[in-house]
C-alpha cells in the first residue's frame, strides 16, 4: 500500500471521466491533474461542476467511467475499494460521527479496523485529541451530541488522521459551521497541515478559504474542466481569464495582502520602533494595513522594523494613491473595499 510514508504522496489523475448513467453529459470529463506530495490542493468551482465527484473517485466512493488514478505511483483502480479507503482520510461537511459511540471510540474507528492493539489505540486517541485542541479528559468519553458543531468538526479531522494516512480528502469540512468558528477551524487546520504535510484535496465553494489554506488552487468549470491550476498568489496576480477573475472578485489586492507575512517583508527601516502601532511577525500584511487604518497612520512597526503603507503597496505591485511616496491611506480605501 502507498502509505508506508505517512508524510504525503503524489496523486496523479489521468483523463479521469465520470458519466453517471442516464445523464446527458459527463459530470467529470477528461481531467488530468498532478497533486504534489505533501501539498494541499483546493478544488473551487460552482455548485454542480463536479468537485465532489472528482474527489470521490479518488477513494472510489464513485467508480470512474474511464481514466486512471495513481497514488504514490500505485494504481488505485487495482486496489480493493474498502482496503483503499482505510488508507485515505476522509472528512465531510456532515462530519458523520457515529452517535452511539463516544468521541474516543469514533476517533479509534479505523485503527480498530486495522487491528491495532487497545493500548496503541488509546495512546493515538489521546495524541489526536490534543492535536485538534480538544481536552482528552473532557471529551474522550462524551457522545457527539454533547459537542458543538466546531468541536465535532475537530473530531472529524482527528478521526480522518487516526491511522496517519498520507492522503486526506476533505469535502467542505468546515462548511456547516458559523463564520467565526469556521475561521478558527481554518487557522488551526492551516497550522496542523504545516506540521503534518499530508497530501490533501480540499473542496470548497469559498474562494477566501481556498486562498487561506491552499498551496495550490484548481479553479474548476462545468464537468470539472480546469480553468486555472496555480498557487493562490499567482492566481490572484494573474487570473487566467474572466471566469477565474469572477471568482476572485473585486478585492484581489486585499486578498494578496492577506497571503503575505510581516516577517517576510523587507522592513522600510530595519529598526523596531516601539512608539508606532505594533504588529507581530506572523501577522499578514492585511492585518498590518488594518492596524494602520485603525490608528490613522501610514506606518506601523513589526519586530524587525518599520512597515509603511507605500511598502505594502509595493509588495503587491500597486501604486499608492497620491504621489507614490509614503502617502497615508485615503480614508475608506482599505476599509470600504471589504
Ligand atoms: N449519483 C449521481 N447520479 C447522477 N448524477 C449525479 C450523481 N451525483 C452527482 N451527479 C451530477 O453530477 C454533476 C456534478 O455533481 P457534484 O456533486 O460532483 O458537483 P459539485 O461541484 O461537488 O457540487 P456541489 O458544490 O453542489 O456539491 C451534477 O450535475 C450532479 O447533478
Automatic annotation (TrEMBL):
<dbReference type="InterPro" id="IPR003439">
    <property type="entry name" value="ABC_transporter-like_ATP-bd"/>
</dbReference>
<dbReference type="InterPro" id="IPR017871">
    <property type="entry name" value="ABC_transporter-like_CS"/>
</dbReference>
<comment type="similarity">
    <text>Belongs to the ABC transporter superfamily.</text>
</comment>
<protein>
    <recommendedName>
        <fullName>ABC-type quaternary amine transporter</fullName>
        <ecNumber>7.6.2.9</ecNumber>
    </recommendedName>
</protein>
<keyword id="KW-0547">Nucleotide-binding</keyword>
<dbReference type="GO" id="GO:0016020">
    <property type="term" value="C:membrane"/>
</dbReference>
<dbReference type="GO" id="GO:0005524">
    <property type="term" value="F:ATP binding"/>
</dbReference>
<dbReference type="GO" id="GO:0031460">
    <property type="term" value="P:glycine betaine transport"/>
</dbReference>
<dbReference type="Pfam" id="PF00005">
    <property type="entry name" value="ABC_tran"/>
</dbReference>
<feature type="domain" description="ABC transporter">
    <location>
        <begin position="11"/>
        <end position="248"/>
    </location>
</feature>
<dbReference type="InterPro" id="IPR003593">
    <property type="entry name" value="AAA+_ATPase"/>
</dbReference>
<dbReference type="InterPro" id="IPR027417">
    <property type="entry name" value="P-loop_NTPase"/>
</dbReference>
<dbReference type="GO" id="GO:0016887">
    <property type="term" value="F:ATP hydrolysis activity"/>
</dbReference>
<dbReference type="InterPro" id="IPR005892">
    <property type="entry name" value="Gly-betaine_transp_ATP-bd"/>
</dbReference>
<dbReference type="GO" id="GO:0015418">
    <property type="term" value="F:ABC-type quaternary ammonium compound transporting activity"/>
</dbReference>
<keyword id="KW-0067">ATP-binding</keyword>
<keyword id="KW-0677">Repeat</keyword>
<keyword id="KW-0813">Transport</keyword>
Amino acid at each position: 500500500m502507498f502509505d508506508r510514508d505517512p508524510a504525503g504522496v503524489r496523486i496523479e489523475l489521468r483523463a479521469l471521466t465520470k458519466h453517471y448513467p442516464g445523464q446527458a453529459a459527463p459530470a467529470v470529463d477528461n481531467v488530468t491533474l498532478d497533486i504534489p506530495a505533501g501539498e494541499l490542493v483546493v478544488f473551487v468551482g460552482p455548485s454542480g461542476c463536479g468537485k465532489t465527484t472528482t474527489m470521490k473517485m479518488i477513494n472510489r466512493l464513485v467508480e470512474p467511467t474511464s481514466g486512471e488514478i495513481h497514488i504514490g505511483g500505485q494504481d488505485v483502480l487495482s486496489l480493493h475499494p474498502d482496503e483503499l479507503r482505510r488508507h485515505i482520510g476522509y472528512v465531510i461537511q456532515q462530519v458523520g460521527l457515529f452517535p452511539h459511540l463516544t468521541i474516543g471510540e469514533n476517533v479509534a474507528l479505523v485503527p480498530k479496523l486495522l487491528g491495532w492493539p487497545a493500548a496503541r489505540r488509546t495512546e493515538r486517541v489521546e495524541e489526536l485529541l490534543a492535536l485538534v485542541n480538544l481536552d482528552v479528559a473532557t471529551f474522550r468519553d462524551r457522545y457527539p451530541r454533547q459537542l458543538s458543531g466546531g468541536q465535532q468538526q475537530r473530531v472529524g479531522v482527528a478521526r480522518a488522521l487516526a491511522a496517519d494516512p498520507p492522503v486526506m480528502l476533505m469535502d467542505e469540512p468546515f462548511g456547516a459551521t458559523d463564520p467565526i468558528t469556521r475561521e478558527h477551524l481554518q487557522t488551526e487546520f492551516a497550522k496542523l497541515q504545516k506540521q503534518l504535510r499530508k497530501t490533501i484535496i480540499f473542496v470548497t465553494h469559498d474562494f477566501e478559504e481556498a486562498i487561506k489554506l491552499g498551496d495550490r488552487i484548481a479553479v474548476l468549470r462545468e464537468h470539472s474542466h480546469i480553468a486555472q491550476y496555480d498557487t493562490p498568489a499567482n492566481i490572484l496576480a494573474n487570473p487566467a481569464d474572466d471566469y477565474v477573475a469572477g471568482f476572485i472578485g473585486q478585492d484581489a489586492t486585499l486578498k494578496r495582502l492577506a497571503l503575505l507575512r510581516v516577517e517576510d517583508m523587507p522592513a522600510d527601516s530595519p529598526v523596531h520602533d516601539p512608539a508606532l502601532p505594533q504588529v507581530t511577525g506572523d501577522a499578514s500584511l492585511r492585518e498590518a494595513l488594518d492596524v494602520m487604518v485603525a490608528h490613522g497612520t501610514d506606518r506601523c512597526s513589526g519586530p524587525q522594523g518599520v512597515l509603511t503603507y507605500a511598502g505594502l503597496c509595493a509588495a503587491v505591485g500597486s501604486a499608492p494613491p497620491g504621489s507614490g511616496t509614503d502617502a497615508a491611506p485615503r480614508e475608506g480605501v482599505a476599509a470600504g473595499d471589504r
